[in-house]
């Protein structure tokens, strides 16, 4: 288990703390209770992750899957917090009665397919890592996370958030944190952390588009569409097309993501705003992908993948560092005068990230 710069798994959730903070302060205990419990659980898990990482490094490597096939195992936590839980579906078995289990199984497979078929990557670690996931985690748990070893999904509280296996891009987002862990290992704080989050949004969106057969023009570029309950005034957790527009709700507040560096948010919360400022590189990817047209995973996605896995992206990279590497990767893969090189450079310019 080695990565570029060392193996340092982090605890990554799809719902950012600022959203849960807002819910936790609500006067209605049906809304504030689950949010508070989720925040406490996330804090506990984050601390446990730091303590146990060094011991798990010495663990024996797991059995590997055939390189061209996923090896999925689904577990049910039974609304408890013990991981992984009770095994409920193994690779190759038929769908059961639990729709949550079936969605998680399909989402793991869709993620495996995109990375293998578009980029020749064999599972999360590039070497056939088994894909494990636990569903029905905790009571009314308002999140999904990658803990460095497996995926975990809450059922949501039913008031604000629905089942976290519903959006396939949420599954792809969290598993991509694993890809980043095994490659660039971007530090989960400040701009490197926002890049870590953005990379997960980018490939989460591409997994959704690949599964649906959508072009860049046809895609909605939303992260977590279908996750918010019908009573919420919003369409998703984030929008790559229009950062800051995903929701504007009396309970949740307004989506705080900036689209450009002019509105970059400086905060000590959420590891320096990793879920907020990720809107800037997200928007740059959207601009590059839509300018190029066609299937976004073929050109813009290939450039981003080249940078993530190429070995030159450092753990503490800033937006400018990442942007320069994408321009370099576009030139090396598609040519100096090609539309890819021009589109990538222009996209970063449009969001205010300097590359020269």
What would your notes on this structure say?
The chain is an alpha+beta fold and 356 residues long. The protein is built from ten helices and ten strands. α4 (168-182) crosses α5 and α7 (279-292) packs antiparallel against α10 (339-350).
Offer a few descriptive terms.
356 residues; alpha+beta; 6-stranded mixed beta sheet; two-stranded antiparallel sheet; 10 strands
Report the portion of residues in β strands.
Answer: 5-15%
Please provide the ordered H/E string of secondary-structure elements. EHHEEHEEEHHEEEEHHHHH
Q: What structural class should be given to the helix and strand makeup?
A: alpha+beta
Distance between the termini: 36 Å
The parts where pLDDT drops under 50 for at least 5 residues are 1-7, 49-61
Main β sheet profile:
6 strands, mixed
Percent of residues in helical segments? 40-55%
Overall mean confidence score, pLDDT: 92
How many strand elements? 10
Helix tally equals 10
Globally, the shape reads globular
Strand order of the largest sheet: 1-5-6-4-2-3
Radius of gyration: 19 Å
Short précis:
The chain has helices spanning about 15-25, 30-55, 100-120, 170-180, 190-210, 270-275, 280-290, 300-310, 320-335, 340-350; strands spanning about 10-15, 70-75, 85-90, 130-135, 145, 150-155, 220-225, 240, 250, 255.
